[in-house]
Amino acid sequence: MPAVSVMFPVYNCENTYLRKAIESILNQSFDDFELIIFDDGSTTDVKRVIDEYRKIDSRIVYVREKIHHGLAYGLNKMVELAQGKYLARMDADDISTPERLEKEFLFLEEHPDYGFVGGNLLLIDDEDRVYGARKYPKKPGEKDFLRFQPYAHPTIMFRKSILSMDNPYGSPEKPRRGEDYELFMNLTADGIRGYNLQEDLLYYRETINSYKRRTLTDQMAEVTIRWNGFKKMGLNPWREIGYVIKPIAVWMVPDKIAFNIRNGSQA
């Protein structure tokens, strides 16, 4: 059994980015892992790229769906399939730093009172140029969820035992964005503590195009997630109504301005 299962969802990603993301995991200083690549019905030739790496590294577990279901569906499936004691997240357009898995594994081994661990981000553009950084609080509390999500989901390593509930990333019948934000609020409400290493663990690819993916329906779904999550954590959503409806205000701001605002402050 591997110590860590890396959950790596793929859907029609750019092949150059995909190669860099895969190699950043295969070249980790920590090597006791399986890399579960879940191809959620891609219509591009990502399978060809993945097959190249499967031929040279037996740690890769490739799962392919014929139709596209959505991110939450794939993440739930990977949690079910994972053999590791710990589950690490990875996206197909990001790059993990070489010692990321080792640092997170050692932290969880040495700190059994924490259910998951993550870290900070370096922001990169389409050409892999670093243009900024995103820092997260070391020990987030309930109020840290008001302004922004206080964990960088692509950097997280979980104890598998804390994701034993059915569909930890939400119902596959009703997929929606914000599944990670909802999960972290649910875990916090249940008394499960998370920790952010004050180190840059991931090169996170974010451009103005990232903001164009969000629709008003997405933002309304996040309003619901915030309302319910704040209540679960013991916060009064009426008192925090400005934070509850923040996704609507963000949707109304032009993409370029929203991008500049977010990357000029913590996200």
TrEMBL record:
The keyword Metal-binding does not apply. Keywords: Glycosyltransferase, Transferase. Pfam families: Glycos_transf_2 (PF00535). Gene3D superfamilies: Spore Coat Polysaccharide Biosynthesis Protein SpsA, Chain A (3.90.550.10). InterPro entries: Glyco_trans_2-like, Glycosyltransf_2, Nucleotide-diphossugar_trans. SUPFAM superfamilies: Nucleotide-diphospho-sugar transferases. GO terms for molecular function: glycosyltransferase activity. Residues 5-149 form the Glycosyltransferase 2-like domain. The keyword Ion transport does not apply. PANTHER family: GLYCOSYLTRANSFERASE (PTHR43685), GLYCOSYLTRANSFERASE EPSE-RELATED (PTHR43685:SF5). Belongs to the glycosyltransferase 2 family. This is Glycosyltransferase involved in cell wall bisynthesis. It comes from Pseudobutyrivibrio xylanivorans DSM 14809.
